[in-house]
Amino acid sequence: MxxxxxxxxxCQLIGELVTRxxxxxxxxxxxxxxxxxxxxxxxxxxxRQVGAVTDVLLNNLALLFVPAGVGVMAHLGLLGQDWxxxxxxxxxxxxxxxxxxxxVMSRLARASADDExxxxx
Length: 121
Fold this sequence. Notes:
With 121 residues, this protein is an all-alpha fold. It is 85% helix and 0% strand. The chain has two domains: 1-64, no CATH class; 67-121. It has helices at residues 2-22, 28-43, 48-59, 61-64, 66-74, 76-81, 83-117.
């Protein structure tokens, strides 16, 4: 279990180093997640220990939002000053996410329906 946690944190560290070294406008943990995903795709499956560690992390996900909530409370004055751009960004990103999700689901449903209609021969 410790080796699986080490793998996850190592991918995050590598992602952080890559984004800082190349000056990428992507958070290091996101790049680390992409690296971990690529490693799992190359392996072809998720190892049992990695799955167990990620299940524990997901089950306690609410605890990981506490620092973000504290940050919001600490900078409430700044949020009050910049409420308009923050609101526009939140609403815009939410709408963009819904639109992209709808497009992907539509295409996947269409592809799935096409696969079911094609006779296997």
